Structures are given as structure tokens and as C-alpha cells.
Amino acid sequence: MDKAGWRAAAAAAAVLLLLLGFLSVSSVSADTLLSAPLNVTIKELEVNSAVVTWEILEGDPVIGFAITQQKKDVRMLRFIQEVNTTTRSCALWDLDEDTEYIVHVQSISMGGSSPPSQPVFFRTPKESEKMASKSPDKVMMEEFGHAAQLRAGELIIIVVVLIMWAGVIALFCRQYDIIKDNEPNNNKDKAKNSSECSTPEHPQGGLLRSNV
């Protein structure tokens, strides 16, 4: 083979190596690149809390998630991250009532994080609106539950006070019985002492008199 043939073969080998390298890099990138979470939804919206849920593409090697939470028109962010989990939901807590929030969700794999999901906007309700949206039966049940808790606490206090009073009365009765049992012994001792202190009589019946 002449010099030109060797050059052509070397060029073909170089091109082949470049193609193989490009294909290997593409396959690695395809394996490690995650898709952004889909169908991000806000559920169980309350005055001070909410739950965000999402879905992922089947086959993505997801090992966790990251959530950014931000008040609208405010730069401060709250960042929530959890790994070694397969959950597809997360609770958002300590929210302000009647406030609009923006939420993004990212998937996490061993190779890094996915692009953020599409932003989700939601507004927390007012306390008065939440109470108005509740049915009368539900409100009545909640009030009944609070009343039952108060009554249970009052009953516990009453029972404790009664037990204390019963203990005081039992102690008083015991002390009273001890004092009552000791009274006959005290009377005998008093009678004995009074007889010993009385004036002695003469053996013939007369009283002893001193000679003047």
C-alpha cells in the first residue's frame, strides 16, 4: 500500500473513532439526563399548609426530589430536598394566609438534578373563607370536639381535686382515731396522779395533826 493509501486508512480510522466517541457520550448523556417532573399539582390547600404532588417519566433513575417555594414578588426562597425516597408528594407548611406562592419541582438522580418543572401558582385562602366553605355539620362536629376536649379536661381536674380531698379526710379521720384511742390512757394517768397527790389518812381514821 502506498503512502496515499495509508493516509486514507488513517483518516477513516480517525473518523470512526470520533463517531464512536460521540455515540458513547450521547448514550451516557441520555442515561443520566432526567426529565422535568410532570403534572405538578397543589392539593389539600389550607390556610397555612398545602401538599404538592407530581409525576415522573417511567424509567427515570430518580432517587429524590427538590422543591423551591417562593412568595410572589418576593425574592426569598424556601428550598426543600429529600433523597433516598420514592415519594411523589411533599407537604408545604408555615404558609401565610391569603398569599400567592410559586412552586417548582426537580427530580434528583445519582448524576444530578433534572430541569425544574413548569411553575405552579396557588393562593392560600383566608381563615374566614375557609370557615365559610365548611358545611354546618362539619363546623358543628369540630365545635363538639373542642367542647368534648374541654369537658374531659374539666373532669380530670375535678377527679384530681376529689382524690386530694379524700386523702385529706382520710388523714384527718386517722389522726382523730389515734387521739380518741389515747384518751382513756390519759384519763387513767390523770386519775393515778390525782390519787397520789391527795392527803394521806391516819390508820385509825383520824387526820394527822401537828402538835402546837
From TrEMBL:
This is Fibronectin type III domain-containing protein 5 isoform X1. Residues 36-127 form the Fibronectin type-III domain. It is found in: Membrane; Secreted. Its main location: membrane. PANTHER family: FIBRONECTIN TYPE III DOMAIN-CONTAINING PROTEIN (PTHR14470), FIBRONECTIN TYPE III DOMAIN-CONTAINING PROTEIN 5 (PTHR14470:SF1). InterPro entries: FN3_dom (IPR003961), FN3_sf (IPR036116), FNDC5_C (IPR032073), FNDC_type_III_4/5 (IPR052120), Ig-like_fold (IPR013783). The chain crosses the membrane at residues 155-173. Keywords: Glycoprotein, Membrane, Secreted, Signal, Transmembrane, Transmembrane helix. Residues 183-212 are annotated as: Disordered. GO terms for cellular component: extracellular region; plasma membrane. It is a single-pass membrane protein. It comes from Betta splendens (Siamese fighting fish). Residues 1-30 form the signal peptide. Residues 183-193 have a biased composition (Basic and acidic residues).
